[in-house]
């Protein structure tokens, strides 16, 4: 392992547990990312000493110089992942090595320090174990874990930060859909503003991808849509517009391919403009394993809005869903685009299609340990 | 004035000066953005109460929740501006209302709170006045001022931060070129990665524009170039590649236009992909006022690399320079592009061309109050 990737060392972890553990919130009061567990795990890095001693401490504010790089030049990247409690009380993570790998990739893209992934995985597991009382029981509930890496050097020159901080915090999250089951949402597909661009950072989980999306999402919401479907392609030429991501999810379209008359599950390719979602990858792998034997095709390719529209008009559009850590899958009722509303295959009183529903069950079964699978790691 | 733009109120400023003023650094030890003055001026905002009471306090660390929006989603924007000491000892700002206007525009693009620009200008002037002992005397020296606005709400939902902090810090800066005069630099023009794109945030001074540029700049530096010239256009089609910015400066090209045989100063248009530089604007205005009467044309238009190359080959390329707050203008010796080196009009032992040199003098004369001009504001 090269020097750059050495450390931190999980064996050096210093544990200083809180003397005043907080009360757990009732599970019906859990709001995503709004309340946090008892501790923070953090490890500092600087260019002279490399990674320092990891510390687990009571959750507390960070103290940073007002000139710290993160405040000025967005030296920040993160991950979002969940810990689950299975029926036997085991604590499980879902493909955590993928999140840690992606964090390392994001970090290096924005000149933040690389780290030894196996070591950070062990720190993550230890943090999760110590915070396990915060994992609400029951399907749909989880502890959302947020590894974060920021540049801390107080220096306004636009250059590689010579100090950084990696930290892990966590927030218990409820069953987003409550007891009522899934709810299909309506999207607005827009080509301006643009979320990401070839040669940009759309495939990295860096902070700079997020703040610029808020105003457009609010405006879309005010027009009655739940999420934005981000398109790429000339805003003046609808025929050139193709899908990238929806909100903070990847998008999947199930249709009957017009050439082969075959059922096909399609999603945008990893061309640098979309996040390489871990749920996306899981959906693709499960589809290969379980849908292909049923006669489905599974395809990563550029999907144009005109193709979706045409499939809907010709009755070939079966279902559409978003895929991400927050909801696993989110069924989509309609997409508003170019002055038209594209109905995505659901009947009026139907909230979720068969493929979307199966995907949710398959992935949840793994996450909650009901199907034994290598993706689910007991900590 | 709408409610959104109300506040902060400069008249409420609470001043708590340091009891331990720092020693000034010798001017030859000043490094851009590395040392800071005695105080920080800050004012908090939240969605319930709006802008709070502005405070001037001893320079100190910020204490922020690890879930604060700025650490995760890059809710951060800033300005860079300078205060100068003129020969009479007056303190001067250069077009400060332009910076404050741009900060407001940047803030609103990334869902941070808007503010009353006249009030923030007054706070800025007061801060500058209190820190005036930090402004080094002499041409080329200045106090670099960094107004910054960050989202502080501890909430991981990707949404508008409900709390924010506006703050001003400052760093004394030396004469970048020392006593040796200007130094021409060599650029590498690259089309991948891409700094900004249509529909993005390239025209806003938001943090997310900066972190993704570091690795490319380092790689370019390792190949022997001082700065990156960021291009837009298909990386595979050199003929389609056009200039946007250089490093963190706008780019100006002086050439003889091949159609009209007229001397022309051209720069990229404000099409959303480049920062609307205040130095850029000043260069354009001064060129209109002082070069046009000498027979020059001044043009904002898309400039293709093939045009620059052709002008160089035909002996029509007069000079090229970057323009920005840090250096005012920075002469450019050569641009490496598409496997070729384009020589930008300077002779071998020449570090700066006439237009570049005149622009520097004209703008500095105004900044240091040697030419009386409405752009220079005595505080």
From TrEMBL, chains A, B:
Keyword match Transferase: yes
Q: Which cofactor does it need?
A: pyridoxal 5'-phosphate
Q: Which UniProt keywords apply?
A: Amino-acid biosynthesis, Aminotransferase, Branched-chain amino acid biosynthesis, Pyridoxal phosphate, Transferase
**Pfam families per UniProt:** Aminotran_4 (PF01063)
For this protein, the record's InterPro entries field holds: Aminotrans_IV, Aminotrans_IV_CS, Aminotransferase-like, B_amino_transII, BCAT-like_C, BCAT-like_N, BCAT_family
Instruction: State the EC number(s).
Output: 2.6.1.42
Reactions that this protein is recorded to catalyse: L-isoleucine + 2-oxoglutarate = (S)-3-methyl-2-oxopentanoate + L-glutamate; L-leucine + 2-oxoglutarate = 4-methyl-2-oxopentanoate + L-glutamate; L-valine + 2-oxoglutarate = 3-methyl-2-oxobutanoate + L-glutamate
Chain positions with N6-(pyridoxal phosphate)lysine modification: 205
Q: What class of enzyme is it?
A: transferase
Family listed: Belongs to the class-IV pyridoxal-phosphate-dependent aminotransferase family.
Name it: Branched-chain-amino-acid aminotransferase
């Amino acid at each position: 392992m090269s020097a750059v990737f050495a450390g931190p060392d999980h064996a050096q972890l210093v544990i200083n547990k809180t003397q005043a553990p907080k009360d757990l919130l009732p599970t019906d009061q859990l709001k995503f990312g709004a309340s946090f567990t008892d501790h923070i795990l953090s490890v500092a890095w600087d260019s002279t000493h490399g990674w320092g001693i990891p510390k687990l401490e009571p959750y507390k504010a960070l103290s940073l110089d007002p000139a710290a790089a993160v405040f000025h030049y967005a030296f920040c990247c993160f991950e979002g992942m969940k810990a689950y409690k299975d029926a036997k009380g085991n604590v499980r993570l879902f493909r955590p090595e993928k999140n840690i790998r992606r964090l390392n990739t994001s970090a290096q893209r924005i000149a933040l320090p690389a780290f030894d992934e196996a070591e950070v995985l062990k720190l993550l597991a230890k943090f999760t174990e110590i915070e396990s009382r915060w994992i609400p029981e029951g399907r749909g509930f989880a502890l959302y874990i947020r590894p974060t890496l920021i540049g801390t050097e107080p220096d306004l020159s636009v250059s590689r930060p010579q100090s950084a901080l990696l930290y892990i915090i966590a927030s218990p999250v409820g069953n987003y859909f409550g007891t009522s089951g899934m709810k299909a949402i309506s999207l607005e597909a827009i080509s301006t503003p643009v979320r990401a661009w070839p040669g940009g950072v759309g495939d990295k989980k860096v902070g700079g991808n997020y703040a610029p999306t808020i105003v457009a999402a609010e405006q879309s919401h005010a027009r009655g849509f739940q999420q934005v479907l981000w398109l790429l392609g000339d805003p003046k030429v609808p025929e050139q517009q193709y899908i990238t991501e929806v909100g903070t999810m990847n998008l999947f379209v199930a249709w009957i391919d017009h050439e082969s008359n075959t059922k096909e599950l399609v999603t945008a390719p990893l061309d640098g403009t979309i996040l390489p979602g871990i749920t996306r990858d899981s959906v693709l792998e499960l589809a290969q394993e379980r849908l292909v034997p049923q006669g489905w095709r599974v395809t990563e390719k550029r999907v144009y809005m005109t193709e979706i529209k045409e499939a809907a008009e010709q009755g070939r559009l079966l279902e559409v869903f978003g895929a991400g850590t927050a909801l696993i899958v989110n069924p989509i009722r309609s997409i508003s685009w170019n002055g038209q509303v594209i109905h995505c295959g659901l009947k009026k009183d139907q909230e979720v299609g068969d493929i979307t529903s199966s995907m949710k069950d398959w992935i949840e079964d793994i996450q909650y340990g009901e199907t034994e699978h290598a993706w689910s790691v007991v900590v």
